[in-house]
Fold this sequence. Notes:
The structure is a homodimer. In chain A, about 35% of the residues lie in helices and about 20% in strands. By secondary structure, chain A is α+β, with helices and mostly antiparallel strands. The longest helix of chain A has 15 residues, at about 230-245. Chain A is globular. At the A-B interface, β9, β11, α8, α10 and α16 of A face β9, β11, α8, α10 and α16 of B. Chains A, B: InterPro entries: FAD-bd_oxidored_4_C, FAD-bd_PCMH, FAD-bd_PCMH-like_sf, FAD-bd_PCMH_sub1, FAD-bd_PCMH_sub2, FAD-linked_Oxase-like_C, FAD-oxidored/transferase_4, Oxid_FAD_bind_N. Chains A, B: Belongs to the FAD-binding oxidoreductase/transferase type 4 family.
Amino acid sequence: MERNPHAERLAEIIGAANVLTSPEDKAPFLTEWRDLYQGVTPMVLRPGSTEDVSAVMKYASQNDLKIVPQGGNTGLVGGQIPLETGDEIVLSLGRMNKVRAVDPDGFTITVESGVILETLQNEAEKVDRLFPLALGSQGSCQIGGNISSNAGGTAVLAYGNTRDLVLGLEVVMPNGDVWNGLRTLRKDNTGYDLKQLFIGAEGTLGIITAASLKLFPKPKKLEAAFVGLADPQAALKLFSTAKAQAGPVLTGFEIMPRVGVEFCLSHLDGARDPLEAPHEWYVLMELSSGSEAFPVRDLLESILGEAFEGGLVEDAAFAQSMQQVQDFWHIRHGMSEVQKAEGGSIKHDVSVPVASIPAFLEEAIAAVTDFVPNCRPVPFGHLGDGNIHFNVSQPVGADKEAYLEKWDAMNEIVHGIVANFNGSISAEHGIGRLKRDLLKGVKSELELDLMQRIKDAFDPKGLVNPGRVL
Amino acid sequence: MERNPHAERLAEIIGAANVLTSPEDKAPFLTEWRDLYQGVTPMVLRPGSTEDVSAVMKYASQNDLKIVPQGGNTGLVGGQIPLETGDEIVLSLGRMNKVRAVDPDGFTITVESGVILETLQNEAEKVDRLFPLALGSQGSCQIGGNISSNAGGTAVLAYGNTRDLVLGLEVVMPNGDVWNGLRTLRKDNTGYDLKQLFIGAEGTLGIITAASLKLFPKPKKLEAAFVGLADPQAALKLFSTAKAQAGPVLTGFEIMPRVGVEFCLSHLDGARDPLEAPHEWYVLMELSSGSEAFPVRDLLESILGEAFEGGLVEDAAFAQSMQQVQDFWHIRHGMSEVQKAEGGSIKHDVSVPVASIPAFLEEAIAAVTDFVPNCRPVPFGHLGDGNIHFNVSQPVGADKEAYLEKWDAMNEIVHGIVANFNGSISAEHGIGRLKRDLLKGVKSELELDLMQRIKDAFDPKGLVNPGRVL
C-alpha cells in the first residue's frame, strides 16, 4: 500500500502510533451505526493534546487538507463520516480525555473534548453533583461531539440543551490558532459571546478541544406517573398546569400514542401496560428535586388529582418503586426500536412551539394518512420541549421497500407543516450531510448568507468539515 | 437652523413627526443618568415598525450614515449616546412597543424591542407567569436594550442572564435586510444559532426589533434571611450547601461587608440592622418557589440551622413578613447609593469563578488598601453569580477629587487581579465606549480578531454603533 506523504509528516508531529492508515485501523471511524454512510479516508489522526491539534490544523491549513473532526462517532446525520471522495482526513478526539478541573463549590467542571459523556456524569456524581445531559449513546458519545451538535436528550425540559450547560470553550481554529475561551464565569459581558458560535456548529468552524461546563445539585428524590388521556390537547393542558405548579421540579414530560404502547407490548421485552384500560394517548411525567425537603410525591399526586377531577386525565399509575420508574421509561425508550418489528418506518425529528403540538399532530397525522392510507403514525417524544419524533409505520402487510421509497416525499409533506408552525426540521440531531440540502428549503436566503459569512470569516479555506451544515 | 438634507428624506420614509431635529426634542436622547457622556446628533429617528427600521437602515447604508440604536437610554457604558463628533444619528426604538403574542401554555411571549421591561413583567403577570429579568432601571429600560446588553440583574442565579431568556429575535441588518429569527422553539439544531451573536453585541451587528422570550411559573412562596458570618469563605460554603439543597429554589444570594451595612444604617432612610450584634460579612439569602407545595421556610431554616451548628454562620434573621423581606433587600439595593454620602467611590463591575470569590476579595482588598492606605472597600453583590461590585470608598476626610483621580490606576490594579482569576472586567454592564480601550488589555489578539471578523461580516461598512465594543 502506498504511503501517503502527509501521513509521514503528520506522524512526525503527533507520533506514528497516532496516525492510522491501515484499513482495519481506520474501519471503526468510517461507518456509523445506522449504516447510512460508508466513508473513505487516507488516515485517521489521534492527537493527544491541544498542542497536537493545533500543530495538525496548522499543517492541514498550509497543505489545504480537509479535516473531519470526530468524537464518539454516534452522530445521526453523517457529519462525522468522511466523504466517499476519499480526500478528507479524520481527526479523532478520543485521546483527549482528561478531566482538567472539578469545582463542586462553584458547580463547574472542565474537561477535554474526548471525555465520554458517561465518564463526565460519573465525575460529577463523585462530588455529589449532577451533569444533566443524558442520551441513549452516553456510554460512547464524547462531550466534544455533544457540544458540536448541541445535543438534546431527556433532561432538556429542566436543564436545557447542551448549549445551556457550556460556560467556556477551548477551540483550535482551522489555521491552528488556539482560542482559550475556557472560562467558568456565570456572567461576562465583554464583547461577542464567541463560544455560542462553536456550539452546534457541527465542527465546521473549528475544533473544540476542551470545555468548562455547569454542574447542578444531584437529585435526591424522583417520582413518576404514567398517565392515560384522550388527546394531545389534554396533554398540553396537563403540561401547562404541571409546569406552572412544579417549575424546575418537572424534569420529564413525554407523550406517546396508544399504537406506540401497543408496539412495545408486542415487541419489547419486559414491557407491560401500566394502566388497566387502553387510552388514546399517554404521558410519562417525572418530577425530581435536589432537595430532600421537597414533597415530590405529594405534588405529583396533587397535580394529577386536580387534572383527573377537571376531566383532563382519564387514569394514572404512580411508580411505587425505582424499578417501576424504570419500567415506565423502558416503554418510552423502547418506542423507537419496536417500530422495526412492524415493518418500514419513515422518521422525522421535528419541533414546533410547545403550544402548537396538538394542532401540528392533528394536521400531520391527517396529511400522512392522506398520503399513505392505513399508515400508522407513531408520534412520540418530548412534549415539554415541543420536540416530536414523528415516525410513521407502514400499513399492515404493505411492501416495506415500496413504502420506504416514499421517505423523501413524506418528509416534504411533514416538513411543510412544520414550517407553517414556524418549527424546526431538526430539533436535536443537527444537519450534517443528511439534511444539508433540506436547509435551503427552510431557511431564508438571508439566514443562509449570514451563516456562510461566518463560515468564511472563521474558515476561509473551507477545510474543516466541508459540505456539512452549509 | 440649517435643515439636514437627510432629515428631509428620512421624514418622507418614517414621517416628519418621527424625525427630531430641534435641540429640545433631541436633548433627552443625548445625555445619560451618570452624566458621563454628552452626545451630539443631527437627528433622532423614531421608527414605528420593522418596515420603518428596515427602510431607515437601507437609506443609512446607501448614504454611509452612522446609526446609534437606543432603547430606554439606561446603559451604563455610553454605548447608546452618539459621539461628540456630531455625525451619528440616533435610532430610538421606543415607538416599537407592541406585545405581539402571549402564550401562557407554551410559556413564551413575543414583543417588540421598545417594550419597557416593567410592562413586559406585567404582561407576564396577567397570565400568571413570570418574566424573571429584574433591574433597578426596569421602569424605563427597554427589552431591546436588555437583550443588546445581555442584562444581568437580581434574578440571574435561578433564571440566568438575558441571553438565557431569549428564544428568537427579529433583527434589521445594517443594510436594511430583515432577519426573521422570531422562533419560540425550545429545540432547533438547524445550523448556526445566529441570535446568540446579536445578544450582548450592544447594537454593533444589527438592530433588534422584536424578540420571543421565555416565561416561567410565577413564584407563589418567598422567604428570605439576613445572615451574619465571619468571612467570604464561610459565605461561599453556605452558598455551596444552599445550592446543593435548594437547587433552583435558591433565587438570591448576595454578599455585603459590614462597612456597607454601616453606610446604609447612617445614610439610608428606613434602614435598620437586622441582626443584634455586628458581623464582618453578611449574606442576603432568598428562596422562592412556583409551587405552593414546597416547604420553602422549612428548607431555609434547615439549611441555616445546619450551617449554624457547623460554625459557618454566626447569626441569622428570618423575614417574618413580605415587608421584612423588602427591608432586607432595601439594604442590599441601597448599598450603591449610600456610598455617595461617604465621599468619592471608585467602582468595578467584575466577575470571577464563584469558588474564587474569597481569594479574589482577599487579594483585591489588600491591593487597593496598599495603593490607598485607609481606603474603605465596599465589595458587594451577586456571590452566587461570581459577580462583585467592587467599590472602594475614599479614606475618611480625604480630598474627593484627588481620590477620584486614582480611578484608572485603581481599575488597573483590580482588573489585573481579576485577570489572574480568569475573570471578567464587565460582568453585567457591557463595554460600550467606557471600557472599549480596556478590552485590548484583557482579550487575546485572536479573540479580538475573531470579533472583528464577525463585525466585518455583518456590518462591512461599520455603520451601526461604530467604536462601541470594538
